[in-house]
């Protein structure tokens, strides 16, 4: 299972979310398959992780850009504790955008050990500026995981 860490970065425009994803090539391929499943689904598709965070993938014809957002179940924040307890990474896009994301994840799985940023996806496809930054680590299938 993918492992997801949530971090925050200070930038000149304020505090931003950073999502760090760790997984083997096979786990990124499974992620890509779920993105493809979401394209043909009327309901969101969920990807569980080894972390408290899960990824919700849904198709939205109204979103010509990839949109990701760190939220809680109801997207309601009545306190700082609610904000700090966000545990759903929502991923939305049109059919075309989700197909490009799936292809990006398949390509990522074949690059070997190392990491990439979602900004590489945005070089060829639109990614909303207010979305969290993603750092995607590809790990060896042979190395033991530290949790």
Category by helix and strand content: alpha/beta
Strand tally is: 8
Q: Report the CATH topology name.
A: Gyrase A, domain 2
User: Which CATH class applies here?
Assistant: Alpha Beta
Proper CATH architecture? 2-Layer Sandwich
If you average the pLDDT, what whole number results?
A: 89
Give a structural overview.
By secondary structure, the chain is an alpha/beta fold. The protein has one domain (3-138): 2-Layer Sandwich (Gyrase A, domain 2), CATH 3.30.1360. The chain is 27% helix and 33% strand. The strands form 2 sheets. It has a 4-stranded mixed beta sheet with strand order 1-2-8-7. Strands 3-4-6-5 form a 4-stranded mixed beta sheet. The longest helix is centred in the N-terminal third of the chain and has 15 residues, at 25-39. The two termini are 12 Å apart. 26% of the residues are buried.
Short structural description:
Helix content is 27%, strand content 33%. The protein has a single domain, classed as Gyrase A, domain 2, CATH 3.30.1360.
Features:
Gyrase A, domain 2; alpha/beta; globular; 4-stranded mixed sheet; 4 helices; 147 residues
SSE order and pairing:
Blueprint: E1 3-11, E2 14-23, H1 25-39, E3 45-47, E4 54-59, E5 67-71, H2 80-84, E6 88-93, H3 95-109, E7 114-117, H4 119-122, E8 133-138
Parallel strand pairs: 2-8, 4-6
Antiparallel strand pairs: 1-2, 3-4, 5-6, 7-8
Helix pairs in contact: 1-3
